[in-house]
Specification:
The structure is a homodimer. Chain A contains 7 helices and 2 strands, in the order αααββαααα. Chain A has about 180 residues and is mainly alpha-helical. Chain A has a two-stranded antiparallel ribbon with strand order 1-2. The N and C termini of chain A lie far apart (about 55 Å). The interface between A and B is large, with 68 and 67 residues. Chain A binds a DNA duplex (28 and 28 nucleotides) through α3.
Chain lengths: ~180, ~180
DNA sequence: TGGTACATGTAACATGTTACATGATTAG
DNA sequence: CTAATCATGTAACATGTTACATGTACCA
């Protein structure tokens, strides 16, 4: 049996909480793992039919609006458990902005500053979004005593990284000013 | 004319400094942009033959060991300039470890700690590597007065992010301990 | 009754990964 | 002379992206 890829495994992970249609899965993935894992609707349907062939999920009765709920099978649960207990794959590192900087000698005058300003703004927005979300989690956690640690942990990862990005943007002018930093 | 992808554009960027063979390009890419952009040897040869067809690079005389130097053409330079002046693409966010955490309820006992320890170590190693590299750059910069700002800037990005990662690893136990952090 | 959100899916293509096959040159 | 490194390339496949086609149900 072919081993799972991270995207397929994530869908199985989401299906542990109960049957979901392809559409539901896209929504759930966006909400639960969308901050650090992207998948498209197209991929979801592809993985679902593949996993159906492999017996990892099974199709339920078609509901209203052609809704087709998938549920995880025992084989699916087994495959998922194997996958999750393996070593996580290496992080993907793909930062187009750093390519722009690497080759910034070829930029039109003023263009670098323009790009940096725009990029900094999107990072600042993301940070705000994460902080607001984390704040809501903590608030509800205090109210009902059931803090969603897992969600909070992944959010904190995003927060740390966005803070790092902003700090970097802010030290950039100094780096480019030509003064060798004291050691 | 089809527009460039970031990988092809990077190769053109590297070719601005003079003709390079496919092999050279793999090495150069690894050294210059490998910290935040991955490409395989296979991709390099594919992009080179595509760009040759499109007239963006041209093949020189075969040298020793079947060495085939490619040089950038005027069309290549034009395509590159257009590409680099465009908005950088969105960052890729793919963090398998966060999937592991999201679904950590399904981990075998003790497995989460094991994984976190291993992951933290690889981040710590990367941080050390980046710091050492940045230190060398700064040292040479002081000696000959020509500090490589661009290289240093991209390294600092990596350093900031690895520091963020380590700080996150270190706050994790507290997050999981169940105490709602004070606001 | 008409627009919006729900819902499924395919097609075509781009990009990325892994494995393999082949030969040239150099260093020990 | 032989192992390592240099060097090119193909094949097969996996994954990701974009665009399109189709139809359903709700709600204003």
């Amino acid at each position: 049996m072919r081993s799972l890829n991270a995207t397929a495994a994530s869908l199985l992970g989401l299906l542990h909480d109960g049957p979901l249609s392809g559409w539901d899965l896209v929504e759930a993935a966006q909400a639960r793992i969308g901050n650090y894992w992207t998948l498209t609707q197209s991929q979801v349907y592809r993985e679902l039919s593949r996993m159906t062939d492999d017996g990892l999920v099974a199709l339920g009765e078609t509901g209203p609006r052609e809704r087709k709920p998938y549920r995880i099978t025992d084989a699916g649960r087994a495959a998922f458990t194997t996958w999750i207990n393996g070593d996580p794959a290496r992080e993907q590192i793909r930062v187009p902005l750093l390519l722009t900087i690497q080759f910034s000698a070829h930029l039109a005058p003023g263009r670098l500053e323009e790009i940096l300003t725009a990029e900094r703004a999107t990072h600042a927005e993301r940070l705000e979004k994460y902080r607001a979300h984390a704040g809501r989690l903590e608030l509800y956690g205090e109210l009902d005593g059931k803090l969603d640690h897992v969600r909070l942990a992944t959010l904190r990862f995003g927060i740390r990284h966005e803070e790092a990005a902003l700090a970097w943007f802010d030290e950039l002018p100094e780096l480019f000013s030509g003064t060798t930093p004291p050691r």
